[in-house]
Structures are given as structure tokens and as C-alpha cells.
Design a protein that fits this description.
This protein has 91 residues and is mostly helical. Strands 1-2 form a two-stranded antiparallel sheet. It contains two helices and two strands.
């Protein structure tokens, strides 16, 4: 009789343990899916970052914003000044 009680208690413990592991396994799978999605997003953002930081993109964007190419030579630039001001030679 006591062995039947021990058997049924161990069976219940085994079912509850397997059930909790199954729930944790589901959470782990969801985290792996989320990790994969985040890695894809990081890859996409790295591509966007590299394409937007290319010199040709920056130059094209500057032209679209109204900047013009500098034709005169730069005479001086003081790197220690709190505000960067350049003196240019106008021809």
C-alpha cells in the first residue's frame, strides 16, 4: 500500500516537473525567436547606417539641402576656438 502511495506521489511530481519544464521551454523558444528578430533588425540598421554614412550619400544629401561646393581655398581654421570659423579667400 505504501509503495502505491510513493509511486503515485512520484508520478505526480514527475508530471508537475515536466509541465513546468515545458512552460520554461516555451519561454526559451520565444526568446530565441525574439533574439533572431533582433539580430535581423541590427543587420538591417547596420546596412542603413553604412549606406547613409557613405560619402556619396552625404554629398548628394547636402546638394539637395542647398549646400554648394566650396571653390575657394581655406586659409585658416582654429581648432581651439569654441566656435569653428574658417577664413576663406574669395576670388
Amino acid at each position: 500500500m505504501s509503495s502505491l502511495i510513493i509511486f503515485s506521489l512520484s508520478l505526480c511530481a514527475k508530471f508537475s516537473l515536466c509541465g513546468s519544464m515545458n512552460i520554461k521551454n516555451g519561454k526559451l523558444q520565444a526568446m530565441f525567436i525574439q533574439k533572431s528578430e533582433l539580430e535581423k533588425e541590427i543587420s538591417r540598421l547596420s546596412y542603413v547606417d553604412s549606406s547613409m554614412s557613405s560619402l556619396s550619400y552625404v554629398e548628394d544629401r547636402a546638394k539637395n539641402l542647398g549646400f554648394v561646393e566650396m571653390k575657394s581655398r581655406l586659409l585658416s581654421l582654429d581648432p581651439k576656438a569654441p566656435v569653428q570659423v574658417a577664413a576663406i579667400q574669395v576670388e
